[in-house]
Amino acid sequence: MNTIQLLVADDEALECDALELLISQTGYKVTCLKAKNGREAVNLARLYRPQIIILDIQMPGMNGLESAENIRSFLPESIIVFLTAWGRFDFAQKAIRVGASDYLVKPVDKDKIKHLLDTCFLKLNNPTAKGKDIGKADIYDNIELQQVMTKLQNAVLDGNLEQAVGTEQELLDSIYSLYGHTENAGHQLYEFLLVFCYGVCKSVPFLYQEKPSSENPAELETVLAEFIRKACDAVREDRQDKYQRIFVLATEYIGKHYMEQISTESISRKFDMHPVYFTQLFHKYCKKTFIEYLTDIRMKNAADQIAAGKSVRDTAAASGFSDTNYFSRVFRKYYGVSPADYTGEIR
Questions:
Q1: pLDDT tens, 186-204?
Q2: Element (H, E) at 346
Q3: What are 285-312's pLDDT values in tens digits?
Q4: Is 9 helix (H, G, I), strand (E, B) or coil?
Q5: What backbone phi and psi angles, to 5 degrees, belong to 63?
Q6: Confidence band (pLDDT; 50, 70, 90) for 53?
Q7: Which of 37, 123, 242, 327 has the fewest CB atoms within 10 Å of its CB?
Q8: Distance from the first to the final alpha carbon of the chain
Q9: Is the separation of the CB atoms in 101 and 135 below 8 Å?
Q10: Helix/strand/coil for 266
Q11: pTM above 0.85, yes or no
């Protein structure tokens, strides 16, 4: 496909510049237009007719929703994506009504932008998808169905799994009654999942859910069921002990990022806690200090790599150590022998 036009509108110039940089790193041929408010976005869209438009919802004067409604009137085939840090369920519904194809939740990173452009280019290259009214969301025009959706969200946020499962089935029965087991039913269920998961994740701290990878109804039902159970479990766990789940997530994060330069300051920031308080609670919930826990993870990984024949230098780097000598001293203290003498028999 030839170079396409992409318009970004955000009243924060740094946000626009950051998005332009991330877009340039995806490998796609994209010319990026930048607007500082909704009104300017409408004018640029009218002038350049971009195929993809990313609008911040909260902008002074004309907000993203108003801009999208205006742009949709003269660019019905454009792909409109909302950029937002907001978690209000009713706002997300309005976004779909004015023709949103997707959402980007701040902070945005390269993976999110790449995934978004993958999806957008697929739609732009697919005449069927292009001809389809991707912004239409009839599911939100049905008042009774909206009530069922609100009932489901309330049940999940209350941690009532039994009620949530019953309401989930009620929702699915209503969707299939309206649309049958068709492609349109899958599309409506996909749109609902985007909004529903987004709203719940914004209400439950440190709850995450990847966007569905397809509009296959059977797969979407599985995603919805698993998310409902995960969200209800999180709500109940937080009600009993608001920190237990945080430190499970913290240890999982360490297990995935131990090779990076992580510290109590960086990880406490990730979980919105003061470093001193985080350190105290980490010891309480993990039975070790943060440094002890991190060192355990790094040394176990290092031992496996040394035993497999990897060099001391490469093992140090892969275990989060920038100084090979310091790594060797820590390794000797931990295992009683130097990395060069380690055979894998000492544990």
A1: 888 888 888 888 888 888 9
A2: none
A3: 999 999 999 999 999 999 999 988 899 9
A4: strand
A5: -80, 180
A6: very high
A7: 242
A8: 56
A9: yes
A10: helix
A11: no
